[in-house]
Write a structure and sequence with these properties.
By secondary structure, this protein is an alpha/beta fold. It has 10 helices and 15 strands. α1 (about 20-35) packs parallel to α9 (about 295-315) and α6 crosses α10. The protein binds 6-O-phosphono-beta-D-fructofuranose.
Length: about 375
């Protein structure tokens, strides 16, 4: 299907929300309508909208472009990180493959292609699903974790990063006033991009990331050395999945048998007090990193991604993800994205920068 034969496309957001999703939706709508004269249908709550009957969607028109949408956090379409249609949890506790119903929902809307703004987990599901249904499909990467392969930036990362830096900016004066060690726990799942970048930008003394398992000794030594040099306060930033060399990441129990990362900051603070006698306080930044007004950079890449995704569908492409590489928007095959992740490469520049600045990385 090429630009001339496409009449209607669908757009959805999938997985955890972040700032900049609405800027991407706006770009898709604006370019698809103004340049190609397509109709754009926004599907609600990821694939859940296609499962509901009647199908749950709204037509996205140019009326959307005049308002506040570029500045809005969250997603006007709603999203979910639950309910994989290949293994859908039914009310009676059983699991069912409901992909045929999702594909049926897509066909009921008369769509000629689908753009999904999601992360690697969503793309894995959507690739299988769109292959099964013969659906032209383009992905736009988003996640505050910035761990989608093949792209230097995913939508949402720099907003989360700026929030973490602001938190360090606010923690530093109170740490200095009270001679305390402030521990800031940030998100990022198994990748330390938020902690590493924010730690450098926010002047942290210790940065702990999942890619470099830590020991308490160098952390305590760093804090004691600062005290020795005349500074009795310190800033520590840790990724939620940071873990000791001889242990596991700290997890919290959720729901029935489930767990999620969280709590490492509190554990670290206790260990720091034990090893150094320092008074510690812990801040867990949590979902503050996901909401809020998108940064300029998130709005810029979201806009560029949305436009390129529409052009790709118009050219007849499918199974591709738009990506940011060397100050350009490019596109890459989904096969190089799904079932992979992009943790910090410990030989990369910023790890070296941190070491050269004498920031303790816990190793
Ligand atoms: O993947 C984005 C992310 O914010 C992670 O950094 C975090 O671990 C997780 O999602 C939180 O998920 P939830 O919104 O389900 O608590």
């Amino acid at each position: 299907m090429t630009g001339q034969s496409i009449k209607t496309i669908g757009v959805l957001t999938s997985g955890g929300d972040c700032a900049g999703l609405n800027a991407a939706i706006r770009a898709v709508v604006s370019h698809a309508i103004q340049h190609y004269d397509w109709k754009v249908l926004g599907i609600h709550d990821s694939t859940h909208g296609l499962l509901r009957r009647p199908v749950d969607y709204e037509e996205l028109t140019m009326g959307l472009i005049t308002g506040n949408i570029l500045r809005l956090g969250g997603t006007i379409l709603g999203t979910t990180s639950r309910g994989n249609p290949f293994n859908y949890p039914m009310p009676d506790g059983s699991r069912r493959n409901r992909t045929d119903e999702v594909i049926e929902g897509y066909k009921m809307l008369g769509l000629d292609g689908l753009i999904a703004i999601g992360g690697d987990g969503s793309f894995e599901i959507l690739c299988r699903l769109t292959d099964q249904g013969g659906i032209p499909f383009i992905g736009i990467p988003k996640t505050i974790d910035n761990d989608v392969p093949m792209t230097e930036f995913s939508i949402g990362f720099t907003t989360a990063l700026n929030t973490a830096v602001e938190a360090l900016d606010r923690l530093q004066p109170t740490a200095a006033s009270h001679d305390r060690v402030m521990v800031l726990e940030v998100m990022g799942r198994d990748a330390g991009h938020i902690a590493l970048n924010a730690g450098i930008a926010g002047g942290a003394d210790v940065i702990l990331i999942p890619e470099i398992p830590f020991r308490m000794e160098p952390i305590a030594n760093k804090i004691l050395a600062l005290r020795e040099a005349g500074r009795a306060h310190a800033l520590v930033i840790c990724s939620e999945a940071a873990r000791p060399v001889d242990g596991e990441a700290v997890r919290q129990r959720v729901g029935e048998g489930g767990t999620r990362y969280g709590g490492v900051g509190q554990v670290l603070a206790g260990e720091i007090t034990k090893a150094t006698g320092a008074e510690t306080r812990v801040t867990v930044l949590g979902h503050i990193q996901r909401g809020g007004v998108p940064s300029a950079q998130d709005r810029i890449i979201a806009s560029a991604f949305g436009v390129h995704a529409v052009d790709l569908l118009a050219s007849g492409a499918t199974g591709r993800m738009v990506a940011w590489q060397r100050r350009q928007v490019v596109d890459v095959p989904m096969s190089e994205v799904v079932a992979r992740t992009r943790p910090i490469d410990i030989s990369e520049t910023l790890v070296q920068t941190a070491r050269s600045l004498d920031i303790c990385l816990g190793d």
